[in-house]
Amino acid sequence: MQDFSFITTWIDNSLRSLMPGWLAVTTECLLVGVGLLLVYALLALFYIYYERKLCAAFQCRLGPNRVGPMGLCQSFADMFKMLIKEIIHLNHIDRFLFALAPYLVIIASMLAFAVLPWGNGLQIINFNIGIFFLIAVSSIGVLGILLAGWSSNNKFTLIGSLRSGAQMVSYELSIGLSVITMVCLAGTMSVEGIVAEQADLWFIFKGHLPALIAFVIYMIAGTAETNRGPFDLPEAESELTAGYHTEYSGMHFGFFYLAEYLNLFIVSGVAATLFFGGWMPLHFPGWDGFNAIMDYIPGVVWFILKAFALSFIIIWFKWTFPRLRIDQLLSLEWKYLLPINLFNLVLMVIIIITNFHF
Amino acid sequence: MANYIEKIQTLFPAATLESDRTPLFTIPGEQWHDMAVALRDNAELKFDYCVTVVGMDWTENLGAIYYLMSTSYNTVVGVKVLAKGDREKPWICSVEDVWHVAGLYEREVFDFFGIIFVGNNDMRRLFLNIDWVGYPLRKDYDENPDINPVSIENERQTDFTDVYSLDEKGELVKNERRIFEKDDFVVNIGPQHPATHGVLRFRTAVNGEEIKKIDIYLGYIHRGIEKLCESLTYPQTLHFMDRMDYFSAHNYHHALCMVIEKAAGIEISRRAQVIRVMMDELSRIASHCLFIGTYCMDLGATTMLFYTLRVREQILDIMEKTCGARMTFNYDCIGGVMQDLAPDFVADVKALLEVLPKNIKEYNEIFTGNVIAKNRMEGVGVLTREDAIAYGVTGPSGRASGWACDMRKLQPYSIYEELDFEEVTATEGDSMARFQCRMREMEESAKILAQLVDNIPEGEYCVKVPKMLKLPAGKWFQITEGCRGAFGIYLESDGSTKPFRIKLATPCLPQAAVVDHITRGQKIADLITIGGSLDYIVPDIDR
């Protein structure tokens, strides 16, 4: 198993030998920030292409195929177009909040990147409440959406953002509870700890039934959290034109667009961490040869591929199901998912106490 | 048939029978409301469906012709009512309280002829904007563009409507009425909105996500087809039929051709009849395919659209080969059809009939059986049979409420009488029923096509018709079945080469108007479900 921590330690040591400690930390932060932005942008571009190609396949189409080989440069072209577009200034809006909203959304998703376990030792911050931090920062996003809808001074955006508020606050519960279920199994909130616990066997196998239930609920709630179909009510285009971001143009709209795709990655990434071992290769207890072969594949590849595979499921949802109605959406959460989740948590605790897991 | 005519004559001796092609009575204005009530309620008459209200200007006097249909006895009658008062303020008693949909049609007559309907709850213009000067369908209307210049200002609109009543002296009194309550939160859905399927505007009063009331606001693409027809010769009027409900272009063409042929006494060949019916049914399948696709898209299932477009494309290809166009076909003409069928028409139709059942099965698997789709559609927007009739909702939407209103069965025309097909009805009346009715109608249309595709007789596809066609003076009324419901045409000729008046009673106007009735108390998202399931087409509403 490759350990990336020697690279990071080496960078840290060499920086510290060149400059005072505080400067070294500042430089590291800057480096991480730049790296993060780069990964962020590239991932978003990839996801746009990924979704368009997948969606095309579901719909018996070809998808983008003109810009670059197999249309690979299509998302770069799209992003460039978005960047040079004019940001339309509207009258009768709260300018400050209007401009602030997309940044809040994007900051929320960027902060969540901080604790994703990219690989062995490849984690921006590792602290003992990592997963808790992730849930906390990803809830900031809803603030941005509410602000966007409110500050646009438009009835459609207002309805869209209120829907979004109701939806995200509700589904946060399900996410939280299914995360707690897995935290119980791991016995730690530290993301590194959770991954390390899965060295023998991924949690989805280890925790069998309750883990499976938690996974299904997490995927449903995660889809709802990212405002994607069939839960895309806040931006239900056939009802509310574009929902909360109707009034946004140019790069401000681009931020919402990016954040949506990045949230998709984060939700899949967290699912990969909690249920499929994060960067941990596929290991089965006793199969030493197999485990050794799996170790040759770097952890980064494992993590990213798992995230993409889980995103595939979420994209598949979107292009197959019709949209729910707001009351159905809320009753699904409060009447079904929440009780099942609570029951599941108890079940998990019982299984852990009785040592019934693998 | 004679029974109900005699019955009406005994009940209302003042009513004179003017024509018996489609029985047309003339009644003095003061007796009209009593007669309307009797026509609807009398056990032997039961004219409970108001097909259309035709505004008329016979230059010496103004008036309206109400075409009524009995859903129990399947009889049609017209009643001509002359307006009282001078040309400045002509008026007729409103029968909105008798047939609900008549209220809407009366607004249209008011808009174009300036006839005030006393007792109608909403005497606003229906299509033209509120600052319009004059009444365009009157024969003495001044068309000078300086009177009604193209406005560059924002459209003026009002929250008030007029209600007219008569005082003790018999004078007209105008009262104002508020459309919405003072502190209603009114959301504008349309005219540019993805779910209105065109430039249609719903002013929607909402209470949170719940709909309190909808005011439908029309006329954004009104082109005045009826007015335009009056200045064109008969063959020239035909091409407008492609531009109303552009998905039932063939059906509408067929209808107008049939009325003109009936008036001129032209017999068309059997081959032309079969071709027309086949084209009608192909359009019906194509239209319903598009409905399923766009409806699923309204509900958020985007992928279905592409699956349904696959079949629709195949049909459009068939039409393109024969008609030379994919949209505005202009194929039926007076005396038959424009050109003969393309050589591979039969093979293409057979190929279509082969893939259609598989596709319908696939649609049902992907969408109809989906639990989210079921939750979104079942029990949403329930329209009872009584309401469907009172609001004049015909076509698959009306049949989903249990009203067997297929004009191909009720008023058989062309060769439909000989064909073996089921009339698809359902009893639930909700969005799901409307959706499934269309799905099953596609199967029935395929059945008709299968019967005809091997039996297209030889013969001429178009009979010789004089270039300058003159119709004898008279009035004709014909109801046919478009893809979206009953399509009525009223044609009045004064013996010249141009129609004196053509009234096109399209199915989509009442369907759009019923939205208010069935969305009350439902969610905003249901407005989309309901609107989509009614499947109205805006150019068909606005004409």
Brief description of this entry?
Chain A is mainly alpha-helical.
Using brief descriptors, characterize the structure shown.
heterodimer; A: mainly alpha; B: Beta Polymerase, domain 2; 5-stranded mixed beta sheet; 3-stranded antiparallel beta sheet; 17 strands; 18% strand
Lay out the secondary structure.
The complex is a heterodimer of chains A (358) and B (543).
Chain A (H helix, E strand, L loop, with lengths): L4 H14 L2 H38 L15 H11 L10 H19 L16 H9 L1 H12 L3 H32 L4 H7 L5 H4 L1 H18 L11 H4 L9 H26 L12 H8 L3 H20 L7 H28 L5
Chain B lengths: L1 H10 L4 E4 L4 E4 L4 H10 L7 E9 L4 E8 L6 E7 L8 E3 L6 H14 L2 E3 L41 E7 L5 E7 L6 E5 L11 E7 L2 E8 L7 H5 L4 H4 L11 H16 L5 H29 L4 H21 L8 E2 L2 E2 L7 H24 L2 H7 L7 H6 L4 H5 L7 H4 L20 H23 L20 E8 L4 E8 L5 E7 L2 H12 L4 H11 L3 H5 L1
Please explain how this structure is put together.
The complex is a heterodimer of chains A (about 350) and B (about 550). Chain A has 15 helices and no strands. With about 350 residues, chain A is mainly α. Chain A has one domain. Chain A starts with a helix and ends in a 5-residue tail after the last helix. The model of chain A has no long low-confidence stretch (mean pLDDT about 80). Chain B has about 550 residues and is α+β, with helices and mostly antiparallel strands. Chain B has two domains: about 1-180, NADH:ubiquinone oxidoreductase Nqo5 subunit (Beta Polymerase, domain 2); about 225-540, Cytochrome-c3 Hydrogenase, chain B. In chain B, about 40% of the residues lie in helices and about 20% in strands. Chain B is built from 17 helices and 17 strands. Chain B has helices at about 1-10, 30-40, 100-115, 225-230, 235, 250-265, 270-300, 305-325, 345-370, 370-375, 385-390, 395-400, 405-410, 430-455, 510-520, 525-535, 540, and strands spanning about 15-20, 25, 50-55, 60-70, 75-80, 90-95, 115-120, 160-165, 170-180, 185-190, 200-205, 210-215, 330-335, 335, 475-480, 485-495, 500-505. In chain B, helix 7 packs antiparallel against helix 16 and helix 9 (about 345-370) packs antiparallel against helix 14 (about 430-455). Chain B is globular. The chains are: A mainly alpha (about 350), B alpha+beta (about 550). Chains A and B meet through helix 7, helix 11 and helix 15 of A and strand 10, helix 7, helix 8, helix 10 and helix 16 of B.
